Amino acid sequence: MDVTRTWTVRIDIGEHDGRTRALAHLHTRDTERMVGVGFARLNPADRDVPEIGDEIAVARSLSDLSHRLLDAATGDLEQVIGERARLVM
């Protein structure tokens, strides 16, 4: 029988001290498991387009989250197999 699990990522975006900050919250089995963080800032020489800052900050938060998740999976795998493991992206 096939089993489907749903994991949800909620992304919060805000402006703080002239930087855009994005938090990517991973929810698994009704609990928040980890959070990825990403920042972007406007280069003073560039035109201000807030959507671009949002995109950069979100991409960085998702990248951070993916690395945290891979690190967690590596630790879990090491516990199961009883030796060092190396997972790569």
Q: Describe the largest sheet.
A: 3 strands, antiparallel
User: What fold name stands as the CATH topology?
Assistant: Double Stranded RNA Binding Domain
Q: How many structurally independent domains? A: 1
* Low-confidence segments: none
The span between the termini is 29 Å
Helix content: 25-40%
Strand content: 25-35%
Set out the fold topology:
Layout (H helix, E strand, L loop, with lengths): L6 E10 L2 E10 L2 E11 L8 H32 L8
Antiparallel strand pairs: 1-2, 2-3
Describe this structure in words.
The chain contains one helix and three strands. The model has no long low-confidence stretch (mean pLDDT 92). The longest helix has 32 residues, at 50-81. Strands 1-2-3 form a three-stranded antiparallel beta sheet. The chain has 89 residues and is α+β, with helices and mostly antiparallel strands. The chain starts with 6 loop residues before the first strand and ends in an 8-residue tail after the last helix.
